[in-house]
Amino acid sequence: MTKTVAVIGGTGNEGPGLALRWAMSGQYQVIIGSRQQEKAERVAAELNARLGKALIRGMVNPSAADAADLVVLTVPYSAHIPTLESIRAELSGKILVDVTVPLQPPKVSRVHIPPGGSATAEAQALLGNDVRVVAAFQNVGAAHLDDPDHPVQCDVLVCGDDKEAKAEAIALAAAAGMRGLDAGPLQNAVVIEGLTAVLIGINIRYKIKGAGILITGLDQGARNQESQE
Fold it and tell me: pTM of the full predicted structure?
């Protein structure tokens, strides 16, 4: 059975590109979520026009979360808690992939650690153990996501305390054309989120777009594991 993924905040910078890639993969049904029904439907229609098929639906955030098996949150940190509170009931029993980074404009190239330790930890604390929260996609720049023909040179580091939830996020990364990697427990999300500010600074200083993180040595590690087996 094909799972449905809702991209909450799907009308922003990163959300539409992820939604487009997941719809193109054919592995997921995709919903764009927004605070405004009209805006959600408009962005969904724009993406469907590019796809040549009506593969993406637009809904208000609570309806999108309610209709989904997996929920991906792509909102600015300023909207993080209010958005979670608006869909809290609909997230019960589900997996939330939190893409939020606690940036503090205008100094977005400086790492900011929020009171809860990380945005993802704050989400887990608010939602409770009934929702399995993972951090993922923070280090993926939006610059190339919107062009599905453009390879994204960035690994997706996934942090969380639930193995199944992390596996779902890694599968989402693969469907979007990226490599997802288990980066440990939810506690490690503070590092993953902080890396985004570092990458933004690199983009600014070197006048580039889409600086990312690639983990080296995995091929050798796989060969070592095979030899042990």
Answer: 0.94
